[in-house]
Amino acid sequence: MMEAQATLEKLHSSSSMAMSYQEVLDYMFSQLPMFHRIGPAAYKPDLSNTIALLEIVGNPHKQLKCVHVAGTNGKGSTSHHIASVLQEAGYKTGLCTSPHLKDFRERIKINGQLIPETDVIEFVEKNKEAWTAIEPSFFEMTIALSFWYFAKEKIDIAVIETGLGGRLDSTNVITPEISVITNIGWDHMNLLGDTLEKIAAEKGGIIKDNIPVVLGEMKPNVHSVLTNIALEKNVRVIDASLSTAPPPPSALQGYYQEENRRTAYQALKTLATISPWNITEDHISQGFQKVIENTQLLGRWQVLGHQPFIVADVGHNKDGIEFVMQQVKDQTFDRLHIVLAMVADKDISTILKLFPKEAIYYFSKAHIPRGLEAHLLQTHAAEAGLIGEVYSTIAEAFSDAKKKASKQDMILVGGSVFTVAEVI
Known about the structure:
CATH topology of the largest domain: UDP-N-acetylmuramoyl-L-alanine:D-glutamate ligase
Number of domains: 2
Structural class: alpha/beta
CATH architecture of the largest domain: 3-Layer(aba) Sandwich
Number of strands: 14
Distance between the termini: 29 Å
Strand order of the largest sheet: 4-3-2-5-1-6-7-8
CATH class of the largest domain: Alpha Beta
Helix content: 40-55%
């Protein structure tokens, strides 16, 4: 709180002077709530702030053609696949995702290029006084910035990933060309609901009247929730899991990418039936193969080194960790070293049970307020039969893992987005 007050006082004292990019970031991060740093306290229960904020900046979202993507896991990778293909098809493509790993500007890109620092500065300086009464959250401000930037740059189409949920997510002010829901799993139950059906209803809030929706692979009970919402809104449902057409291979190597590729493929095939979008099989094939090159995606089964084999993955909930652990089992190595840090508002005990007991663990805390204290993580891990040492920083944990690992070993960095961010 003291940090936020100091930042605000600095902002007011220099209101007549141009702000630096770092001052803008300090303002956005410390003065305004940010879910990925502080958790549920930053979650807003309605869209009124977003609507008010967008009114101030001229409702730029109404000028955009969009693809809207929600889901528990895979929505980021699916969004990047779709954006990469649209780029290959020759469209000037915006991409709005979250969270970022290294640079805030990763959240807002056009054709894989980060939003310039000067545009971030311009947006905040121009509007900071007008939105004082609104007190927008970090995410609300970021979404407004992305829509403003995309409209200013006159893009052809934007791929917009929800931040959390769907119905009340700040992105849910757009009317997209198509909606995509990758899957439904256990995450953010304290905000979205304590059953998969309730979570599905929240994610299904992005389904709009008469706008096609593509559904990824999911359990029958949640599939029914979404198809019922679609029926009420007179929406055509495209079920990616039922398609017999195999999607092209992708540069992303995680096992979970097979499901994401199928969903993205059907989304693109659906978009291609809507005028004026011209998307061919060759565009899809090239876009999938060049997804990392085109969109600069990080942290999805990202190989950081060999001898030892080092992989970083941002999987952080039950479904995500299960996929990662399955892929780890299929690797060849002598010993497994896991650099692990987690956030405190997850179902820690359930997730830790998914990790292998025979691995050597290096416990630490991500450098964010939500980070679970390393000693607490070690205690929870011990209850699950996972043994390891505590380190004061993730960098120290990773460094020690590299020292102790032989050339025939494997090192996995994971447990949260922030663990991976601090390593890469």
